[in-house]
Design brief:
mainly alpha; Methane Monooxygenase Hydroxylase, Chain G, domain 1; 3 helices; elongated
């Protein structure tokens, strides 16, 4: 329980933000699974996932380096699928 008004407000804000961020992270995870599980991932699908990753990183929902790592793995999977 918060001791001050400002601490109570901070707790409310944190709760709202964490719920919003969780939905973004869940959406990212789902998009990535769909892109990686398909036999031949479409270029548009990969671009959409990369765009969503960039937006999440820009807003601080995921770490900048984590975004780079995820994008690198997606690009690697895309080039591997293209060479098959």
């Amino acid at each position: 329980m918060a001791n001050t008004k400002s601490a109570a407000k901070r707790a409310r804000q944190t709760l709202k933000r964490s719920l919003r961020n969780r939905s973004v992270v869940t959406r990212l995870r789902t998009m990535q699974k769909q892109a990686r599980s398909s036999e031949t991932p479409k270029t548009e699908q990969i671009r959409a996932v990369i765009s969503a990753i960039d937006k999440a990183a820009k807003r601080g929902i995921i770490h900048r380096n984590a975004a780079h790592r995820r994008k690198a793995r997606l690009n690697k999977a895309l080039t591997a699928a293209a060479t098959k």
